[in-house]
Amino acid sequence: MCYDYITQLNSALFISESVTVMITVVNIIIREISIFLIKKIGYHLESEEVTDVMRIIFIATFLNTAILLLLYFGSLTDFREVKLSFSRVAQLTGLSK
What's the CA gap between 43 and 69, in Å, rounded? Predict the structure, then answer.
């Protein structure tokens, strides 16, 4: 019993840490690509460039982190129940063919 618990705990910790590392690496890659592309635009003022870099990095990393966390914590078994609920509603309302 203790062996099973320790094995499951270790695998859960490994998966959790792997997701954290993956999100961090992808965010670093997004940051570097964003900085490179914005520098290629060639702004007249450095403040405009810095503002756009910060804005793009914030939006990209926020969305990346949100999407990856949703994928990680999402449960695909719930989608089947939602689909069944919608099909039942469609049958009751006469929207299904």
Answer: 34
Q: What pLDDT, on the 0 to 100 scale, is given for residue 11?
A: 80
Say what the pTM is.
Answer: 0.61
H or E segment to which residue 64 belongs: helix 46-73
CA distances in angstroms from 25 to 6, 21, 60, 76, listed in the order given: 28, 6, 13, 25
Tokens at 86, concatenated: 């919608």
* Residue whose structure tokens are 């618990």: 5
Distance, CA of 49 to CA of 47 (rounded, Å): 5
pLDDT digits (tens, 9 = 90+) for 40-93: 988 889 999 999 989 998 998 888 888 877 776 665 555 555 444 545 555 555
Instruction: For residue 29, give the amino acid letter.
Output: I
Could you give the angle at the alpha carbon of 76 between the alpha carbons of 86 and 17, nearest 5°? 150
Give one word for 43, left, alpha or beta, with left for phi > 0 and alpha for psi -120 to 50: beta
Three-state secondary-structure class, residue 23: helix
